[in-house]
TrEMBL record:
Main location as per UniProt: plastid
Protein name, UniProt field: Sedoheptulose-1,7-bisphosphatase, chloroplastic
Gene: LOC110768976
Residue ranges occupied by any Fructose-1-6-bisphosphatase class I N-terminal domain in the UniProt entry: 70-250
HAMAP family the UniProt entry points to: FBPase_class1
GO terms assigned for molecular function: fructose 1,6-bisphosphate 1-phosphatase activity; metal ion binding; sedoheptulose-bisphosphatase activity
Necessary cofactors: Mg(2+)
Organism: Prunus avium
PROSITE patterns in alphabetical order: FBPASE
Organism lineage string: Eukaryota, Viridiplantae, Streptophyta, Embryophyta, Tracheophyta
Pathway info: Carbohydrate biosynthesis; Calvin cycle
Amino acid sequence: METSVACYARGAFPVRNVSSQHSSSLVSPASISSSFNSKALRTSSLFGESLRMVPKSSLRVLKSKNSSSVPKCAIGDSLEEFLTKATPDKKLITLLISMGEALRTIGFKVRTASCGGTACVNSFGDEQLAVDMLADKLLFEALTYSHVCKYACSEEVPELQDMGGPAEGGFSVAFDPLDGSSIVDTNFTVGTIFGVWPGDKLTGITGRDQVAAAMGIYGPRTTYVLAVKGFPGTHEFLLLDEGKWQHVKETTEIGEGKLFSPGNLRATFDNPDYSKLIDYYVKEKYTLRYTGGMVPDVNQIIVKEKGIFTNVISPTTKAKLRLLFEVAPLGLLVENAGGFSSDGHQSVLDKVIVNLDDRTQVAYGSKNEIIRFEETLYGSSRLKGAVPVGAAA
């Protein structure tokens, strides 16, 4: 029987003993990278400890009453109701619901992680696993159990893994399992990022080829922020006490507003143009809202519907952010929300992903902020010719 995944309510899962036979192969990221395969997940499944399998027919997917026009999403819709309105592709719906179940479980595991020093772990019987590696396994398993994912890779396992789904009509997924894992111990907000591409390729593609992108955000609230290509807006779903995702916000426009999140400030030491841009924000009395986590900093632009996030390189500070796992998926989320993205010259969605580990500088924000970013760093902007709008020379 074709199946998909559903989560036990409230995320309160019974902890079962996990054989010590498997613990040695789960502790080391290197050992996971070299030996990872989907068959191992089926036999020693952490995802299976937290989730139960149910027939796909039990997932409530509602048909649109008016198929002749784009259905209108509604605040209060469930995730399943929203997805049925957002896309006719049942396989994509299945994948995004499966990923939602993984995000729910990760949120619970992050909240219950025990942190000492810089290491945060979860206990499974006699086995301990760092939360970023745990998130990585849960997401790979969700994709395996969805039966619609052909290939997947992550920042932790940066090689293509065969998830067993179809190449024709299926999807390939790239994800950052726990962006900001180094600040879990300080109890800052962290999150998951993923992008979904059609077919069986994750190189030779662009971010604009994505059919969906999302963030899972683990903070005071657990939210699932989702964009579906061709469907207006970027949509926030809140995890309720009973374990359901409820649609709580739609963002269709990123307006102007003096809020900035400047990443990689060390680059201002030997990148005078970036230093000039930061000086402009300070001089113009922008509000600083920077956490050190890319997920919460970009999410606030979508939620507040204003602002700018920057992460700029310099001669001594090379690009850190990965195009496939972080930058392109967030680019779709921001641009679907009515914002803009830039690597200094073009939208990050137009950058070709040549290698899985390609890296880039980036800015996300409102139109005028991206114009200012491009003009200050490179003298002109594709969005507004050569007319300056910001920092004086």
